[in-house]
Specification:
binds zinc ion, 3 strands, 3-stranded antiparallel sheet, about 70 residues
């Protein structure tokens, strides 16, 4: 069995469908005081896009295969 635990650096990034702001788990979100290493799924439900104030539901996962 392999370890499937992903670091935040391996977590998917999400892009705002309104303004195309990208939430990068490796960086967190300074505006909302979200610590670096917080995955998108771990963001609070009331977290909003720091750029356009759009809700989490507007975000879409973007591929980041490397
Ligand atoms: Zn936005």
């Amino acid at each position: 069995m392999t370890s499937a635990e992903a670091d935040a650096t391996d977590s998917p990034r999400y892009e705002c469908g309104v303004c195309w702001h990208v939430y990068d788990p490796a960086e967190g979100d300074d505006v909302a005081q979200v610590a670096a290493g917080t995955t998108f799924a771990e963001l609070p439900e009331d977290w909003r896009c720091p750029t356009c104030d759009g809700p989490k539901s507007k975000y879409m996962r973007i591929g980041d295969d490397r």
